Amino acid sequence: MCETVKTIHSDKTAGRQRTVVLKREKGNVTIFAFDEAQGLREHTSPFDTLVQAVEGDAEIMVAGKAIVVKAGDILLLPAGKTL
Questions:
Q1: What is the model's pLDDT at position 8?
Q2: What's the CA gap between 9 and 17, in Å, rounded?
Q3: Is the pLDDT of residue 1 over 80?
Q4: What is the pLDDT of residue 74?
Q5: What is the model's pLDDT at position 75?
Q6: Which residues of 38-73 are buried (b: 16+ CB within 10 A; e: fewer)?
Q7: In DSSP terms, which residues pair with 20 in a beta bridge?
Q8: What are phi and psi of 43, to 5 degrees?
Q9: Average pLDDT estimate for 25-33
Q10: If pLDDT is split at 50, 70 and 90, which confidence band does 81 have?
Q11: Rounded CA gap, 27 and 34, in Å?
Q12: How far lies 25's CA from each of 15, 34, 46, 77, in Å?
């Protein structure tokens, strides 16, 4: 079955845009956009997290280790790890 994905929720705070496009019992799809030097607070996700860098570069902390992603990179972060 196919379905059209629509924006469920969108909010913008200083330096960050968050758009939820899909919510399911087994995971969500949320699109984030960050201004330079902005990011998310440390947290743990119950689901795997897929990060795709669209432009620029970013440093992502995973379980205390810094990982640098650049435009075009895709990173899969396992569920239960501190991000």
A1: 87
A2: 11
A3: no
A4: 93
A5: 92
A6: eeeeeeeeeeebebebeeeebebeeeeeeeebeeee
A7: 9, 30
A8: -160, 170
A9: 90
A10: confident
A11: 22
A12: 29, 27, 11, 19
Q: What is the pLDDT of residues 30-46, one digit of tens each?
A: 999 989 888 888 889 89
User: Looking at residue 43, what DSSP letter applies?
Assistant: -
The pTM of the whole model exceeds 0.90: no
Q: Which of 17, 19, 18 is nearest to 6 (CA)?
A: 19
Closest to 17 (Cα-Cα) out of 38, 33, 40: 33
Q: State both tokens at 52.
A: 């795709």
> Per-domain residue ranges for the chain?
1-38, 40-83
Query: Is residue 16 packed enough to be buried (19+ CB in 10 Å), middle (13-18) or exposed (0-12)?
Result: middle
Instruction: List for the chain the helix, strand, coil content (%; round to 5).
Output: 0, 55, 45
